[in-house]
Amino acid sequence: MLGAFQVSALTFGPPQWQIDPKVEPPLTRVVTPAPIPDGGRAFTVASAATLLELYDRASFDLAAVRSGERDVPRLYLTRLPTGFDKLEKVGPRKRAFLRVALPLILRVDVEIGIVRTRMTALLDRIEAGETLRPQDRRWLISVARRYGVIDSSDGSLGAKPIEEILDDEARRRLLRRVDAVPVPLALAQAIVESGWGRSRFAMEGNALYGQWTWDKSQGIAPAGAPDAAHAVRAFDSLLHSVRGYMHNLNTHPAYREFRAARARGADSHQLARTLTRYSERGAVYGEELVEIMKQNDLDAFAGAQLGATSIRRGDGWQSLQSPPES
Q1: How many structural domains are present in the chain?
Q2: How far is CA 63 from CA 69, 187, 269, in A?
């Protein structure tokens, strides 16, 4: 899937996307698709009806994606439109949500894959005893810091050899952390945590995955519990929500078992059963995710890929020139 993106990453370095939801790369005008990492299509629409029309104009056919006949258009919805939570018919509502979430999940998986490609090549060079270029060393250390493998506050790293900073154990941890989240699992969690996009947190805060924060200024208080110690974290865009979710699974100590199982080649169903600490429901939560995957044939999206987008501009939707204000 990564193909030319991997070559580009190895040659020019990875995209410098940030995890902080307040930082977004420039969003470009939407007419023809741009290759990752330059972005593709970030857009917003005025209503749920317009969103469905837009997906139809883009020939975004989930059945064809499931069968492998079509790729997924690079259409990255910035926020759920007015009326999305009021879609009455179950079938159209589910199809709409899958068409919202699938391109976002694929994009973030590709972003992670680009970083992993370059990182793996550099770790192989360390294993072979080669000396890294200063810029490669700095980049690798920045990735290790971002993924919590080395202490961000350690100011003594400059004088240490890279093989000491990233010893065998640190390199194994990096490889376990900088990795994609399987599409069926990411879809299932978005469905459960956002109620197919109808939750207040998804509609008001772009929160597809129900992540908690103890900084209430960054979140939305749970209904009926304004004095709760936590809030549900809000994001500036749906894409930021997916990035935050994947970074959470890839770094938080609670999901160590998930990362270990993924490294062993576990499938989405097996991985779901490791997420007992994602929800207060424990093991029941994992079984719910498995059932969601089965009922909605989400496993068929495991091989889905981002592809070209053919669409003509119409009324009721707009591309974004800059990210929304926080």
Answers
A1: 1
A2: 9, 16, 22
Residues 287 and 308: their CA atoms lie apart, in Å, by 35
CATH number at residue 189: 1.10.530.10
Residues 6+ apart with CB under 8 A from 103: 40, 72, 73, 74, 75, 76, 306
Q: Largest Cα–Cα distance in the chain? A: 62
Within a domain: residue 5? Answer: no
* Residue 254 lies inside a defined structural domain of this protein: yes
Distance CA 262, CA 267 (A): 8
If you ran DSSP here, which 8-state letter would residue 157 be given? G
Judge if the upstream peptide bond of residue 37 is cis by omega within 30 degrees of 0: yes
AA letter at 150: I
Cα separation, 279 vs 284, whole angstroms: 9
Condensed to tens digits (0 to 9), the pLDDT of residues 229-265 reads: 677 899 999 999 999 999 999 999 999 999 999 999 9
